[in-house]
Amino acid sequence: MEKKTLAYWQDKAATLKIEGRAFIDGAYREAYSGRSFECVSPIDGRVLANVADCGAADVDAAVAAARRSFNDGVWAGLNPRARKAILLRWAALMREHLDELSLLETLDAGKPISDTTSVDVPGAAYCVEWFAEAIDKVGGEVAPADHHLVGLVTREPIGVVAAVVPWNFPILMASWKFGPALAAGNSVVLKPSEKSPLTAIRVAQLAHEAGIPAGVFNVLPGGGEPGKLLGLHRDVDCIAFTGSTNVGKQIMQYAGQSNLKRVWLELGGKSPNIVLPDCPDLDRAANAAAGAIFYNMGEMCTAGSRLLVHRDIKDVFLAKLVEAAKAYKPGNPLDPDVSMGAIVDKIQMERVLGYIEAGRKDSKLLFGGERVNEATGGFYVEPTVFDTHHDARIAREEIFGPVLSVITFSTIDEAVRIANDSDYGLAAAVWTSNLTNAHEIARRLRAGTVWVNCYDEGGDMNFPFGGFKESGNGRDKSLHALEKYTELKSTLVRLR
Ligand code: NAP
Ligand code: MG
Question: Which residues does the entry assign to the active site, renumbered to this chain (predicted)?
Fold first, then answer.
């Protein structure tokens, strides 16, 4: 197949029709208030569309539609095989619309088109397929019980699931929620980030075309407000949230203030990537360390934002790392040869630049550090590396941008202590040739995912994904994700 060029994507962008309305009860609608907000592309600062700014009336309408569809059994009441068939059709439609969805995602979030076409959109379709394929194969249990009883342990859909998601992998993070939630038979209200609502809005129409009944899948764009209102809503049974730790804490409070809805949180990280002197391949480790923080402009919850490097190999390793960083040259994400696009918006870019300024005060800048391509009107920041110390602000707080903090250590115990001395516990990695050290360190690291001699691998659906500590609770992906969207029921039948 011929490789698509920058000109191809720019032409396609020029004629793209963009839907900005909410999707409620099977149809697109303006916000009840008539309010909208401008959806801006971080590539060049251009307004892409006016998007419905949903408020209380829209939230109530979407939740009511979801409740009605759930109670009617039009989805939950189907044989799982029937839900599977519809979900597979939906995923197929996402794949058929690969170019359009990828383009929307790139325009809206600034992500490289080479990633949105290969990771984000196919990944979302795959997630829907994976849970569709799983749902007609998972059964309940017949539990041991007294002879006069039959005891069943079954899982049932919870009811109305609200999914509130961030902007860094907009459609992919959303699919990690709606894939398992819909497969399990729930009705869903999805709230995308106001920074990146377009793909969520578009796939709603595809869901409808695939045969997902009205009310079962709703999309409510808007500022933080719909997220808060969903968190406080008494008729939402479960809220699955991916985003910052601060907002995650608020979501828990909303649940406590309202109906104790189930709360599942996938939150921030400050993940350590530990390189020991017996690292099997320093070149590969340096490339992986750069990818761990510069892929997706560093807007990754699992970003390896703390590089812990042993004193003995520090100089040679950092030289390789800086070389590897040069491969991430910010450019127009519509160009298929560009591997680093724009920061999602001006606010986030300024946040990142603020951290870089803070770093300049107490750390040594080794690479990058500047906003670039300003004449485009877009928001681009160079990959940036600081030699710093564990207590520096840039080494402790989640930046969510392309800024790496290098921390030096002398012993394994020190490395593990520094690695675990964080409020977060999402991911971690260690590089060593010593099998015993690898396993012992992996056990000691307090994180939901640990990589040994790699970073960010195992991207398929088989591994649960989520965090320890303030990185959240519950897990996305894998069959374990179904636990979040189902209630466990014991049914005891007395035979005589
Ligand atoms: P965020 O500011 O917490 O926002 C996440 C979502 O919550 C958005 O849809 C946002 O809407 C909404 N929201 C904002 N305020 C709210 C409130 N008071 N109540 C309810 N909802 C509210 O996070 P973000 O900046 O979009 O995303 C970056 C964060 O996500 C990082 O911390 C990152 O680590 C984390 N993340 C975690 C994972 C994981 O799996 N662990 C994956 C990806 C990202 P608006 O945007 O419209 O305000
Ligand atoms: Mg945007």
Answer: 266
